[in-house]
Amino acid sequence: MFLAHVIGIGPHGPTKDGHQALSGVKVAFGAKRHSPWLPPGLLLKPLMPLDQSIKEIKERLSRESVAVLASGDPLFFGIGRRLLKEIEAPRLSFYPAVSSIQLAFAAIKEPWDRAHFISLHGRSHELLRKLASLPQTKVAVLTSSGKDPFRMAQRLCSAGLEDLKLWVLEDLGTPSQRITEARARSLPPGPYSDLNLVIIDWSPLPRPRLGLRTEEFSYQRGLITKDEVRAIILAKLRLPAQGILWDIGAGSGSVAIEALGISPQLRVYAIEKDPLQIKYLQENIRRYQAFQIEALFENAETAIKRLPSPDRVFIGGSGGKLREIIQTTLARLNPGGRIVISAVTLDTLSQADEILRGEGLRPEIISVQINRTDSGTKPRIFRAENVIFIISCEKTDETPTSGLS
């Protein structure tokens, strides 16, 4: 059986086994920078464009073995993952070399057994979201060009993270190796080699996983979900470790932000049509580094038709479009997903219950009455707050929907 030998190239070339595998093939696919490590007479073909080269690799495997060259470890954010999707595993053989991550942490003299890794190849906009889901740690970021380090620093600064320490490591293991250490706010614009990676000394702001107080948010007076009600809403959502949450009528974003304290791997879409509320929402996202939240300034009934299908949905406001929002949400909601709706008026409660039952669901309804002591009065008394109704239900595979998707 002919094999595709996937050979990692380190700063000093392939390993001994990698050299031996190269000696048994006539054709290798890789980059020009790998050519010094090839034996005489071996034909080097470009690996890019990838779709075209994989097609040729498959065709050649019917009659001969080939080599595929990669930097470092091919199975660490490398070509190995794609090859395993395209070619059956028995036809592949891997020869890892020292990875750029190992070289980078050795260069800055830091252990990396607790480090996290982010690949920004084609996904630079996801940097903040991925950072926000991590605990305090060193984060190695695999970039795609020499422009990425400075762009990354600018993105961090725009999010209020200008004091984070960065290391930019270029051409690791070569005579032109260079290390630049700086705070995000003072990182030089470059130029940097295209062969670079960035290490971020990530340190998120400490905050409780649950239990932020109302006064710890920026919000429009009278328009925020109170602490205790928020806790019940989150309990009724039964948040998964990962998935997508829609927060419809998000207001200041207090529910979305507290949800991330419980499940930081969530991806949250917070939809709000009021310009003042969206301002508070954006302030709170920045304050709590809740970059997993994408704030959407638009009507909910429009936004939810194009967003990724959710696993959980909280509806805190509907702008008079409750029926349309619920029906579209149910059509988009993944099986096993949950909807939680808060209502202040009996009219909204009755309408939500009628719509959900009409869609074949059996919602649970609870009323929440908070009485709070007023420390400024003598004698001390309890002051009653408005009753809040919380409606929750779950979609199953059998749930019929008449959604407007």
TrEMBL record:
Keyword Ribosomal protein: no
InterPro entries in the record: 4pyrrol_Mease, 4pyrrol_Methylase_sf, 4pyrrole_Mease_sub1, 4pyrrole_Mease_sub2, CbiE, Cbl_synth_CobL, Cbl_synth_MTase_CbiT, Cobalamin_biosynth_MTase
Keywords: Cobalamin biosynthesis, Methyltransferase, S-adenosyl-L-methionine, Transferase
GO molecular function terms attached to this record: protein methyltransferase activity
Coiled-coil zones: none
Pathway linked to the protein: Cofactor biosynthesis; adenosylcobalamin biosynthesis
Pfam families registered for this protein in UniProt: Cons_hypoth95, TP_methylase
Origin: domain of life: Bacteria
GO biological process, any: cobalamin biosynthetic process
Leader sequence segment: none
PANTHER family with a match to the protein in the record: COBALT-PRECORRIN-6B C(15)-METHYLTRANSFERASE (DECARBOXYLATING), COBALT-PRECORRIN-7 C(5)-METHYLTRANSFERASE
Protein name: Precorrin-6y C5,15-methyltransferase (Decarboxylating) subunit CbiE
Upper taxonomic lineage: Bacteria, Pseudomonadati, Thermodesulfobacteriota, Thermodesulfobacteria, Thermodesulfobacteriales
Gene: cbiE
